[in-house]
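Submission checklist for the structure archive. All mandatory fields must be present; incomplete records are returned to the submitter.

[x] Identifier: S-acyltransferase
[x] Organism: Glycine soja
[x] Residue count: 392
[x] Sequence attached
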Amino acid sequence: MGVEWLLVCHGLVTAVVVVSFLCGRWPIFEGTFIQRIHYFLTFGAYDYFLRFVGAVFGPKCTDAVLSVEYYCCDRPNPLLQIIYIVIIGVTYYFIAKSCFAYIPGYYLSGIHRYTSFLAVVVGILLFLLTSFSDPGTINTENVAHYISAYPYDNIIYSEKECSTCKIPKPARSKHCSICDRCVARFDHHCGWMNNCIGEKNTRYFMAFLLWHFLICLYGTVAIVLVLAGRLRELRVVDILTVYYGIENSFLDLAPNVVQWLLGSYNTQILLMVFLAIVGMLLAGFFGYHAKLCLTNTTTNETFKWQDYMDWQRKLKEANVSAEALKQSIGGMSSEKQPLLSKWRAFFRKSPLEDVVVVKNNVYDKGFFHNIQEVISPFSTRRSFTQNKLKSS
């Protein structure tokens, strides 16, 4: 029983670490131990490590560690791409080694040996397509066309020049400090892809997320069916009820069945839990980006809008407070004051509660237009090319 509990604890710890690392900054985890673990994993542990290296080995070793950090985090490098290939290759190898012996089985036909391989190949192709496709690089030749495609809203985007590229900066674009280029409709720089996600390859990135979520879902369900088939083929339930005298009810059978599965098929269960956790994370990440696409917003713009709305809210609150102070001073100077019920004054809503800041996204032109802009970017359309030819 010790091994089984060790596997359960290992799975729970792995789940907590993965969720904390990837989702610790989400608002729902604010103030929780998930956020604290995320802070420790992303900043605290590394900070303590740098201090330890500096104290034991001196500043030269600290500079060496910082140079490695610069290469891994601040410049393009294939490190995470290699890790992705290793993860998906090793996971598929263990699935094939531990599960293919039971396929075909009671619930699965032999075709799943080939469909699983095909699913992984398609996932890798989408990964390569996203990694090596042009995200929408802006240069002197196409900058005018991107400016006409994405007009300035004069709210979060105004006419300005990129201080690095020395060319006009179209709306919705950003200069990526890692790739050292301006990208149209910039969303974010993805370390896993070693590439920016922008106007041209957002569609590939979304397809990558969706397909890998489906792969994880497919793998989880397939392993569940493999284990269910083994239970049926080996007649485990009959043995437990007939030979061991266990009551034929879910509450009595479940602990014994789980114990038998953990003892006989622990590798398959660990793979199933791993795929389920990664699948849930991918589902959340895909849902977040799908919402952005449906509202024609980018990850970069969410931060810009948040800063703008916070500034507008503070400005309006200041104006409301000033107006309330002005009215209070005017009321004090008047000769007669109307009597005001204390209960009414207690329940009266503060003027600051009426302060509302509305997001005015001029690029959100409706569900179908927003989806079309992701699937068919402006730079791939015939009108964009024709305008380019006319201007040249």
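[x] Structure attached
Curator remark: The longest strand covers residues 174-176. The chain has 14 helices and five strands.
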